[in-house]
Fold this sequence. Notes:
Elements: H1 5-12, E1 30-32, E2 39-46, E3 49-56, H2 62-81, H3 89-96, E4 102-103, H4 106-121, H5 131-136, H6 149-156, E5 164-167, E6 172-175, H7 188-202, E7 208-212, E8 216-220, E9 229-233, E10 244-248, E11 251-257, E12 262-265, E13 268-271, E14 285-292, H8 295-318, E15 324-329, E16 336-338, E17 340-342, E18 349-351, E19 355-357
Helix pairs in contact: 2-7, 4-8, 7-8
Amino acid sequence: MPTSRRSFFSEGLKKLAGQAADALELKHPLAFLGLDKSYVRMKREAMASHFEVIFGAYEKTQSRETAMYVLDEIDRFDSLLNIWRGRSELKEVNERAALEPVPVGEEIAEMVKIAKRIHHETGGAFDITTTPLSRCWGFFQRKGVIPHAEDIEAAKKRIGMDSIALDEEAKMIRFKKPDLEITPASIGKGLALDYALKIAQERGLKDVLLNGGFSSVLASGAPAWKDAWQIDVRNPFDNERPIARLQLKNQGFSSSGSEEQFFLHEGKRYGHIIDPRTGWPSSEVFSVSVVAPTAALAEALSTAFCVMGVEKTLEYCENRNDIGVILIPMPDDKGRSEIITSNFSPDCMEVLIKSCQTKNRDIV
C-alpha cells in the first residue's frame, strides 16, 4: 500500500518528537537570528519557493502535525493560484472572465479585493494585471528586450485593475475587456501565508514563524524566551552585512527589488518591476522591505513602493503608522545608496548600517 503524507507523519515524524531542526543558515536572503534555543523547522517546496514553518521545540508533539497541515494549506494555494501549469481556479478566471462572470472561492475574491484597494491607495502603482507588460519586456521569457513604444502602448491597453469587476457577495469575477490576465506574483505568497497562519492558530500553534521563500514572512506571537521573532534584513549588495535587525510580532514582512531579475541595454539597467502607469520598469528604488499587519499587505506594498519611489512612499507611510518601510534607492554614480526608513520605533528596528556600497558597476 502506498505511503501517504499522513501515514508518513504518523510513522516517521513522531520519532522526531523532542528533536529540533538545525538553525537557519545566516547567509540566506533573510537571516533569522536569536536561535539560541531549540527550534523545529519544517519545510516544503510550493509556489516556486521554499516554505517553512518554524516554532520552538518546547511546543507539543502535535505541533509537528499542525505544521504539516499548515504546509498543506500552502499546497492548496499553489493549486488555486498557479497559472503556469495544470488547471487552477485562477487560470479558469483568466480564460473565461472576459466572456462571462466566473464564480470563485473566498481566497481569490479576497486577493482581488485587497489588490483593488491597494491599487486605489497607491495611485495605480500596484496592479495584478501587468502580465502583458512583463511579456512585452521579455521578463516572462527570461530574455529582456527593449520594446517599441507602440508595443508598450498596446500592452497597456490590455491591463487595468478597473477592468476587473468583483461581486464580493456573490463571489463572481468578470473582466470588462478581453485579454485581461490576473497574476498572483506580487501578492499570492503573502496571502497563502495569511491563510496558513489561520490553520496554525486554529490548531493551537500560536507562536510560529512562517517563511515563504525568504521574501515573504509572517510572524505570530514570539518564542517563549523572547519578546518577538528577530530577523536580519538582507543587504542586496553584501550578503555578509545586513542592513537592519527587525523584531516581528503578529506582523508580515516582505522584500522586493530588481537585484536578480534585470537586463542591461546600452549601459542602462532595466529591472522586472514595471510601473503599470507608464509601461516602463521602475528605476528610482533598488530594494524595498515592508512590515505590515498581514503578509499579503506587506508583499503588495513592497512591490508598489518600488514603483512609487522614495517621496511617494514616505507620503503614504505618513498616514499609515502600521506600515514600516526600509528603502534602498538606486546607487549613485559612485555605487552608494543611503538607507531610508519610516515608521519604526527603536525597540522594533535597529539600523545596522546607514548606507550600502556596491562594487558591481552593472547595478549603477
